[in-house]
Amino acid sequence: MSNEILYILLPDYAAHEAVYLSQAIASDEFALKENPKYINKVVAPTLEPVKSIGGFRTLPDYSFETMPDDYAALVLIGGFGWSTPVAEQVVPIVRQAIEKGKIVGAICNGASFMAKHGFLNSVKHTGNGLEQLKLWGGGNYTNPDGYVHTQAVADNKITTANGSATLEFAKELLLLLENDTPERIEMYYQFNKQGYIYWLCATMVIMFVLPFAVARLTSECSGMVLCMMLFLVLNPVYSIILGANCGRNIRQMWSIPLISAAMFLSGTRIFFDIKETGFIIYAAIYLALGWIAMFTGKYMRKT
After folding, report:
1. In sequence order, what are the residues at sequence separation of 6 or more whose Cβ sits closer than 8 angstroms to the Cβ of residue 188?
2. Active site residues per annotation
3. Of 101, 112, 18, 116, which is closest to residue 60 (Cα–Cα)?
4. C-alpha–C-alpha distance, residues 286 and 275, integer Å
5. Which among 115, 244, 287, 292 has the fewest CB atoms less than 10 Å away?
6. Which residues contact 61 (CB under 8 A, 6 or more apart)?
């Protein structure tokens, strides 16, 4: 089987809907893959450049006439072209893909096109709302009970998504393609979904809010015990977990272990009202643990 993933782009296509999937296929968090499992290829009506909604022009690898019969997956990228006559040329391409058991993905108006031609009548699916699928599908769409009101759905090698679900669409297709382990795919999804915000909020709670709670809301005796648990157990463990996750994208997240240590140092100095150098040592240890875990995680993923 060919390892090519074919992206069908019609005039006025939605460029952003291909980003997360194509990026995960071609690269990891460090650089372009030397030996990728799959290769991204663009298919358009002709070999002339095809224009996106935003005005970008993409040079296709194949036209409808020259595209190969064998490939790993067929992906219909949304846009305004799916409501034009040129889209009818895609019908036999999709039909043949489904008959051959190929993985097929359709997002936004691409999913509506699938409904229009009866390709969603035997699978669970989603799209830009049930009403749009009914409007586009007319009498050819006979499976409204199979509609699932969610971002993206994969069923029997067919993945559909609404236009706001580019990341969920990518995740479902990456899992079907087994592009990586489920754990790595989930990490890719969570990083792009949550980004800095998730880890900064968690760091704020653990390194800043908890010291405040211990200092202000507990008795002196229980406070000492809780402080030891914070300083010797929770904070080191969190620093390691934080660093390991930052190792997924060091270029963007290298500073978060440093921010975590700074938050701890600020919190303890403000809330405990003690200017001991021991707090600086603790902060330095947490920073070291975070960065060691970060670079160790990077090395382990590369090997």
Report:
1. 24, 29, 171, 174, 180, 248
2. 108
3. 18
4. 18
5. 292
6. 41, 42, 43
139 phi and psi angles, rounded to 5 deg: -70, -15
DSSP string, 153-220: EEETTEEEE-TT-HHHHHHHHHHHHT-S-HHHHHHHHHHHHHHHHHHHHHHHIIIIIHHHHHHHHS-H
- What does the block give as tokens for 69? 């019969």
Q: Report residue 35 as tokens.
A: 């030996």
pLDDT tens digits for 267-299?
Answer: 887 777 556 677 889 999 999 999 999 988 777
**Residues 130, 150: Cα–Cα separation, whole Å:** 11
Amino acid (1-letter code) at residue 258: L
Exposed/middle/buried for 78, CB within 10 Å: 0-12, 13-18, 19+?
Answer: buried
Q: Which helix (H) or strand (E) holds 8?
A: strand 4-8
Report, as ranges of residue numbers, the positions in the chain whose pLDDT lies below 50. Answer: none
Q: What is the DSSP secondary structure assignment for residue 79, as one 8-state letter?
A: B
Asked if residue 18 lies in contact with residue 58, where contact means CB atoms within 8 angstroms, the answer is no
CA angle 151/153/157 to nearest 5° reads 150
Beta bridge partners of 63: 44
Question: What string of DSSP letters covers 119-150?
Answer: TTTTS-B--S-HHHHHHHHGGG---GGGB--S
The H-or-E segment that residue 262 falls in is helix 256-271
How far, in Å, CA of 258 to CA of 65, rounded?
A: 55
pLDDT at residue 301 in the model: 62
| The pLDDT value given to residue 275 | 60
Q: End-to-end alpha-carbon separation of the chain, Å?
A: 27
Nearest to 57 by CA among 9, 20, 22: 9
The helix (run of H) or strand (run of E) holding residue 91 is helix 91-99
